[in-house]
């Protein structure tokens, strides 16, 4: 009986809903919408033979990789393996990448940063850091591959990074987790005295293609969340947000949000540089460590709404905008006001020996769009507007930086973390597109089980209203991305032939196998469609060793031809590498398993690719 009544009520409710829907239905609007879909489709369609206008370098989060997309098509073009091994490219298997990966097999890549000249992306290098295992990496955009990885000592989770200064003088790595100085053991009861949030200043030596640590700063034991470098008038400065200034050591979810205010840390890196040059530092594990309590004049605190997440410097370098995360507001601060207060030494007090500026004297305005919740990160265009992601209310809000007025908002699916606008972190953003990097896709794409991909949505900024014109599922996790004009990059077509390159071999007849004690060294070539390891042997494509030998294989791809990449995999030896046109790669292993092991080219390179194979013969010990 009850079921029956419920059924009738259900039908009635259904009818009501249909009436409402039909009442709302307007055939004209439907037609207009279809026209819109067609225009939007045109906006993102990149016809065959043409290329995308922008590269998007997107963080792969805990996949440890960097993803590259074309904009506006939003097609995934390539993955650069960075902090995690990748069998497709042999990253983590060949000697060079294996050495760079060291003892780690995963990473958590958060914020990519393109190299800059005069505050503009110059298209030369791309930096990234690993929150999981305290590393920084640099990728060369000539080859789209990693040139160097540096493990930074004394720190715990460089999440705020990597952001670069306007001429790539430094990339700064502030950390999320406070750790005892030198990462010694210390009880959490001594958190406030022994733990520090260490920030590292890393430089890139372009000639050697090496990352180096210039110095570190022992900041209070707080969590540093996001940072940005100054520009133009603020070019010698940088800002970063903090939370857990409560210095709680457990149940952070509750305890780190007690105080009404946390801080933006404002630091002058030119001053820090001078201090270090003047010897104002202590040495820790071979690194110059500046203590801001002892050496004053470079670091200041600006109070801001509790537990801020992002902080972003405007393209003209005059302001920095903090996003509230827990407070429903963005706070606009003025660099000029901050400099004035610093010059006049007008401080509101001190925290851990660091001067605190007066909130009111630095703050320009609090921006509070109606019902917008969970502001995380802001990007900018060329017309003075900011675009802030709202994690909780799932939207992007466009507002005027000078007046604080909200001009537009667009719902995104769902919960955006960062957004990336075209040339967005430069002194001259393009204002053409912004991409919402959404943490949750839910029902957006074909379902693939309980966990779904994340999503990116491309938004056109050129019209009166922001308009979503494309959406793409992405692998975890889109923390941040940077979008650069494609014509700023000029990648190599082939690695140039270089006869002086160590261990390279450029003709078939120079291919050879030599033995030195227990080490067998192969100088081989790969070409369509064969391997030649030893030009004098009866079978040129066979490597014969003895069980227990150390085997070193150098392989040069002598097909100097666009996109003719060869692979080199050894069946059941868990080894693979890639050799791009003109490249020399080395793989090293101990032949610890006797037996017969086919080896083959793993990259489909020609009609006779399937014939491109040979054998590794491992003769058992007597
Ligand atoms: S964080 Cu703010 S959403 Cu790592 Cu830049 Cu992810
Ligand atoms: Cu070489 Cu397939």
TrEMBL record:
Entry keyword annotation includes Isomerase: no
Primary enzyme class: oxidoreductase
Localization annotation: Periplasm
Xref: SUPFAM superfamilies: Cupredoxins, Nitrous oxide reductase, N-terminal domain
The protein's name in its UniProt record: Nitrous-oxide reductase
PANTHER family: CYTOCHROME C OXIDASE SUBUNIT II (PTHR42838), NITROUS-OXIDE REDUCTASE (PTHR42838:SF2)
Annotated transmembrane regions: none
Residue ranges of every copy of the Cytochrome oxidase subunit II copper A binding domain listed in the record: 515-622
EC number: 1.7.2.4
Domain of life: Bacteria
UniProt entry keywords in alphabetical sequence: Copper, Metal-binding, Oxidoreductase, Periplasm
Keyword Phosphoprotein: no
GO molecular function (one): nitrous-oxide reductase activity
Any Pfam family matching the protein: Cupredoxin_1
Taxon lineage: Bacteria, Bacillati, Bacillota, Bacilli, Bacillales
Gene Ontology cellular component annotations, sorted alphabetically: membrane; periplasmic space
Organism: Bacillus benzoevorans
InterPro entries registered for this protein in UniProt: CcO_II-like_C (IPR002429), Cupredoxin (IPR008972), EfeO_Cupredoxin (IPR028096), N2O_reductase_N (IPR011045), N2OR_C (IPR034205), Nitrous_oxide_Rdtase_Sec-dep (IPR026468), Nos_propeller (IPR041114), NosZ/Cyto_c_oxidase_sub2 (IPR051403)
């Amino acid at each position: 009986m009850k079921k029956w009544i419920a059924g009738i009520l259900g039908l009635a409710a259904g009818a009501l809903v249909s009436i409402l829907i039909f009442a709302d239905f307007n055939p004209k609007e439907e037609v207009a919408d279809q026209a819109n879909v067609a225009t939007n489709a045109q906006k993102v369609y990149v016809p065959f033979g043409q290329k995308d206008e922008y590269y998007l370098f997107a963080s792969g989060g805990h996949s440890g990789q960097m993803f590259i997309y074309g904009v506006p098509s939003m097609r995934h073009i390539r993955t650069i393996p960075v902090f995690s091994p990748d069998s497709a490219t042999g990253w983590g298997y060949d000697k060079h990448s294996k050495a760079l990966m060291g003892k780690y097999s995963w990473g958590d890549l958060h914020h990519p940063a393109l190299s800059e000249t005069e505050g503009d992306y110059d298209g030369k290098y791309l930096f990234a850091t690993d929150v999981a295992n305290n590393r920084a990496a640099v990728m060369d955009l000539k080859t789209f591959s990693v040139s160097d990885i540096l493990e930074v000592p004394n720190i715990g989770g460089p999440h705020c990074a990597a952001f670069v200064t306007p001429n790539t003088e430094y990339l700064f790595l502030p950390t999320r987790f406070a750790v005892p100085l030198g990462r010694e053991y210390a009880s959490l009861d001594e958190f406030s005295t022994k733990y520090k949030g260490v920030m590292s200043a890393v430089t890139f030596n372009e000639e050697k293609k090496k990352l180096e640590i210039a110095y570190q700063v022992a900041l209070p034991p707080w969590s540093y969340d996001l940072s940005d470098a100054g520009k133009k008038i603020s070019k010698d400065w940088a800002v970063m947000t903090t939370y857990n200034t409560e210095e709680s050591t457990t149940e952070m979810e509750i305890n780190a949000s007690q105080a009404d205010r946390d801080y933006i840390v404002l630091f002058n890196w030119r001053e820090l540089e001078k201090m270090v040059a003047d010897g104002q530092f202590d040495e820790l594990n071979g690194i110059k460590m500046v203590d801001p309590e002892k050496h004053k004049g470079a670091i200041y605190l600006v109070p801001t709404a509790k537990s801020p997440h992002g902080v972003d410097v405007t393209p003209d370098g005059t302001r920095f905008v903090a996003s509230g995360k827990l407070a429903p507001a963005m706070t606009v601060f003025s660099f000029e006001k901050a400099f004035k207060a610093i010059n006049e030494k007008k401080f509101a007090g001190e925290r851990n020996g660091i001067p605190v500026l007066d909130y009111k004297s630095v703050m320009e305005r609090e921006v509070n769009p109606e019902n917008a919740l969970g502001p995380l990160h802001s990007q900018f265009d060329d017309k003075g507007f900011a675009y802030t992601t709202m994690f909780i209310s799932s939207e992007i809000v466009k507002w005027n930086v000078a007046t604080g007025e909200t001009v537009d908002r667009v719902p995104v699916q769902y919960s955006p973390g960062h957004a990336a606008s075209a040339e967005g972190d430069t002194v001259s953003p393009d204002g053409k597109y912004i991409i919402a990097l959404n943490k949750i896709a839910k029902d957006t794409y074909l379902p693939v089980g309980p966990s779904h991909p994340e999503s990116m949505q491309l938004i056109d900024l050129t019209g009166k209203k922001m308009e979503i014109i494309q959406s793409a599922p992405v692998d975890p996790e889109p923390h941040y991305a940077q979008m650069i004009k494609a014509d700023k990059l000029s990648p190599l077509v082939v690695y140039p032939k270089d006869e002086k390159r160590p261990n390279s071999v450029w003709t078939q007849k120079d291919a050879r196998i030599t033995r030195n004690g227990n080490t067998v060294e192969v100088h081989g070539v790969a070409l369509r469609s064969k391997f030649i390891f030893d030009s004098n042997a009866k079978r040129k494509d066979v490597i014969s060793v003895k069980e227990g030998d150390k085997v070193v294989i150098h392989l040069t791809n002598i097909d100097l031809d666009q996109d003719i990449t060869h692979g080199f995999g050894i069946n059941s030896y868990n080894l693979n590498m890639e050799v791009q046109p003109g490249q020399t790669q080395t793989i090293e292993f101990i032949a610890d398993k006797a037996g017969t092991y086919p080896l083959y080219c793993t990259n489909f390179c020609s009609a006779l690719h399937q014939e491109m194979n040979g054998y590794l013969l491992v003769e058992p010990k007597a």
